[in-house]
């Protein structure tokens, strides 16, 4: 089950962060997303590792933490799509599939002419779409 | 658990360093620092201190390359329950440090050291170092190691020797211990071992284990003694034994030792093979620690801490970017494991280590996360020291969360360079703006800092945290929360000494609003040394705002520079905003200037909730040089902070890009402001300063339209520098209203010394109000001084400057001090005075008497006579109507003037006499001057003034006037007249203007206001409409007179002279008597250049206006033809027709001549304004009076 998804801008500024849990653990999830940026940064800045996967937007598991697994996805505009899940055993294909939908939703949201790049995404449609994708996952 | 562990830790000899006998902490730290440098002592250097008492067990000791490592424990540490397990945990040596001057009795020092030694039972070597002993102390016999006072280098050398001595002693002790251990006998236990009495089977097992444990311990000592090969040998044995006995805990310990031995042996090498080996072995270490977990002990003690320690050791060993994944895995495992640690302080240490390792790895955010965990653990402890630690740890996380205090992060590095990179932002600032969006996390961190600071009793840190929280996240904080923070600020400030400074600004937000332009009274003008008139070009001249000619000049650079003068107060406008829900009281705010040549004046401001304010901050430059104003110093909430304009600017830029939560100014409803360019400000030495005032009050001078008045302007030098040059010029609108300026007075007063004053008279003449002004004044009802505001007043510009050279400073001659410009607006408020309502041209026909002479007509064309005539009349002051001359066509210009003001005006009209310089076009009118009679116009009254303009018709009705260029306009007849009128107008205009210019209406009101009414345009308008009638002669003119003789019937009036002579001759006679045949003649003159055929009629009317020639009751009989006399009048000629009348009744009769023009040409039609061809053209002469006397 996905507990949190986030869109993080290319300057590591959060554009959208939404948790899907009942419990009041937004802060914890914020921390997890925030910490995962370390790993993304590391992957981006470490050319040796990213060599063979240069054109790969899907970063895979960023790190496992406590009961969660954090997945990352980096668009070619350096926008990070982060997903936190409690399922410790997830098929890679599912995650890729999820990210495909997530990325499309993000692209649609920022294609809105009234969206200012760099500003937080406030589109309701985007939020609905994301929650649909999240619900259909796994 | 211990912090700072690494694989090599196992090879370090632990030495406690304790202060003895009241040594001041600072000195202890100094001495300890000297000691800490000797953490590694090479074996080769201690060989001289080493004596081999028996055969060394460390057979493979590398005397050449090996070394002993020390780990100095400052302040000592309590003995560890695990010191049997890992010998490096034992305190093996104790060093006491004392400072002799502070404890003179060396004996008591020795006693105290002895007492301290007792707590360190495991120590093998004890030394007490006494620094700086006195001479008497040196002589004393004691066990202390005395360091005689010497320079630092000597002391350090001395210390090194002593440390080497300690190392040698330790080595010998280790040998002793190992030999003893090999012989057996020591029982090694850990808290992990069961405390219960052992069963017999277990005793046997324990014995076997003891051997293995002993081997492991010997290995430890070998390692400490710097002999990894020996250690390895012992560890191998220990491993074997531990494996056999299932002593997993010791197995893991031995394995750890062996890895350490391996690393020491391969000192400095780091090849992948070694790495793999270490990794592999440590994995097994971790696994065995895990295996040694015994459920029954789990509540009391657990090997978990060793497992975690081993994990961290491995992580530290591997901690490199390339291996980040493995390290992260290890650290994640450690973090997970830490949760099940029993001891909170162990957990704290694990988190600290994890945070450090993440930091080393470059995972700043993770490091920050774990640091925060550490801080939370500290905060759980609920004591002041823990709170301080929590605060410090949190302070380290602020960088990763981008909420760091400015004091800690960038100590005033941007104070000086504000100007250098004016517009662009630091990269750092941009990033921090972006990352400042993790507000959820950031606020939590700041709150925790605030909490820990409050708990640890650090008001400044609390203040700073509250300030950062409030300033950055006010939009996310509820009003109640904002109030809470405000009171936190106030509470913290209460505990701070007065005048405490803090690096982090709180509220309000301050931005630069503008640099107000220097008042026009004090304008500074750069002097052009090459020109005498140095002010030229300094200010835009001429009517255009932009001229291409001035573009290339230095006006561009002028704009960026601001010149301040030493000793003259300057002002800067800043805008403050308080977006929070409580009132902010700024105790004082002033400009912060780091260049130290500026005295800023503090002001205090109150900002109500959610408000912004523009305030003026002022100060006085004190020294020459550049001035930079990076921000403001604010004393608010009890603490002094410096607010930099650039921070707010960046924030505002961020707000526009959506990076920052909100724009504090906008949320307060402040107007949007473009970013202010900060000019380069330079301070120049004192300049002269002229202060002006208008004598009699600086208010505006109220003048009525056209009024002329003298104004005195007083100029005083208010500076300390004399004025040596001055030049007056005019600028602004209505410059022509300044009639004269006595600039010589100013020139002669130069140099104007400080304090001196000079008065300049200026003569003003009020201008005419435009239509707009009139409308405005009319609609408002009251003509107030509003006109002054719109800048219609002229301005006096005085450019002045001080001495060219400064005294005794010959080199700076080339650098001229700038001059100044004083702008004195001549505030003239022009009121509507007499207003002109309308002008009308009135024509009057006063019938002439029929005498023996013809009336003086236009056609009388003698120049000489004309001149004579006019000069003659010039002397006359009044209109005199000569009854015989007749004055038909006498015209008056009637001016209607109304007085809407509340004063009384007296007007007089004059027509200036001038000899006309154009001969033909302007036949001189009857210009009489009416100087003396004055027309008084009371308030709210209207009066009419008459100006007589006698007949000034043109002599000839020339077709050229009318039909110029329209000979072939037979098809367009209808338009002929309009064409011709247009064409004639231009020619007439000149003559009209000439006439008008001579009409003057002067007025006077009260004692000292007088002026002239400018009504030229109005007169012109009035005249223009009837210009045709005024100037163009009729085509025919008629005249009557009594015929001299009835005989000469058709004598042509050939010359005017004759006529004049006749006039003179007949002037006395000519009375008509009733019942007598009266011969009369009618004279018809053709004023055109073509022959005119006419049918002439003569009519005689009595007083009642009845025709008395025809009809039943005719009272006049006639002889000759009176009606339908057809004649042809040659061009410019006259024709007479003679007839006789017989008056039956005496009385007054009127003679009228009228003619119908046959076959009128175009000119005549145009003149008569005939519309159709068929229309008969009538021409009518003026009436003539005939006085018929009775016969009695």
UniProtKB/TrEMBL annotation, chain A:
<dbReference type="Pfam" id="PF04628">
    <property type="entry name" value="Sedlin_N"/>
</dbReference>
<comment type="similarity">
    <text>Belongs to the TRAPP small subunits family. Sedlin subfamily.</text>
</comment>
<protein>
    <recommendedName>
        <fullName>Trafficking protein particle complex subunit 2-like protein</fullName>
    </recommendedName>
</protein>
<dbReference type="InterPro" id="IPR044760">
    <property type="entry name" value="TRAPPC2L"/>
</dbReference>
<dbReference type="InterPro" id="IPR006722">
    <property type="entry name" value="Sedlin"/>
</dbReference>
<dbReference type="InterPro" id="IPR011012">
    <property type="entry name" value="Longin-like_dom_sf"/>
</dbReference>
UniProtKB/TrEMBL annotation, chain B:
<feature type="domain" description="Trs120/TRAPPC9 fourth Ig-like">
    <location>
        <begin position="1068"/>
        <end position="1189"/>
    </location>
</feature>
<feature type="domain" description="Trs120/TRAPPC9 third Ig-like">
    <location>
        <begin position="867"/>
        <end position="1031"/>
    </location>
</feature>
<dbReference type="InterPro" id="IPR058565">
    <property type="entry name" value="Ig_TRAPPC9_Trs120_1st"/>
</dbReference>
<dbReference type="GO" id="GO:0005794">
    <property type="term" value="C:Golgi apparatus"/>
</dbReference>
<dbReference type="Pfam" id="PF08626">
    <property type="entry name" value="TRAPPC9-Trs120"/>
</dbReference>
<dbReference type="InterPro" id="IPR058567">
    <property type="entry name" value="Ig_TRAPPC9_Trs120_3rd"/>
</dbReference>
<feature type="domain" description="Trs120/TRAPPC9 N-terminal">
    <location>
        <begin position="9"/>
        <end position="187"/>
    </location>
</feature>
<feature type="domain" description="Trs120/TRAPPC9 N-terminal">
    <location>
        <begin position="197"/>
        <end position="264"/>
    </location>
</feature>
<dbReference type="InterPro" id="IPR058568">
    <property type="entry name" value="Ig_TRAPPC9_Trs120_4th"/>
</dbReference>
<dbReference type="InterPro" id="IPR013935">
    <property type="entry name" value="Trs120_TRAPPC9"/>
</dbReference>
<dbReference type="Pfam" id="PF26254">
    <property type="entry name" value="Ig_TRAPPC9-Trs120_1st"/>
</dbReference>
<protein>
    <recommendedName>
        <fullName>Trafficking protein particle complex II-specific subunit 120 homolog</fullName>
    </recommendedName>
</protein>
<dbReference type="InterPro" id="IPR058563">
    <property type="entry name" value="Trs120_TRAPPC9_N"/>
</dbReference>
<dbReference type="Pfam" id="PF26283">
    <property type="entry name" value="Ig_TRAPPC9-Trs120_4th"/>
</dbReference>
<dbReference type="Pfam" id="PF26251">
    <property type="entry name" value="TPR_TRAPPC9-Trs120"/>
</dbReference>
<feature type="domain" description="Trs120/TRAPPC9 TPR region">
    <location>
        <begin position="326"/>
        <end position="489"/>
    </location>
</feature>
<keyword id="KW-0333">Golgi apparatus</keyword>
<dbReference type="Pfam" id="PF26280">
    <property type="entry name" value="Ig_TRAPPC9-Trs120_2nd"/>
</dbReference>
<feature type="domain" description="Trs120/TRAPPC9 first Ig-like">
    <location>
        <begin position="538"/>
        <end position="644"/>
    </location>
</feature>
<dbReference type="Pfam" id="PF26282">
    <property type="entry name" value="Ig_TRAPPC9-Trs120_3rd"/>
</dbReference>
<dbReference type="InterPro" id="IPR058564">
    <property type="entry name" value="TPR_TRAPPC9_Trs120"/>
</dbReference>
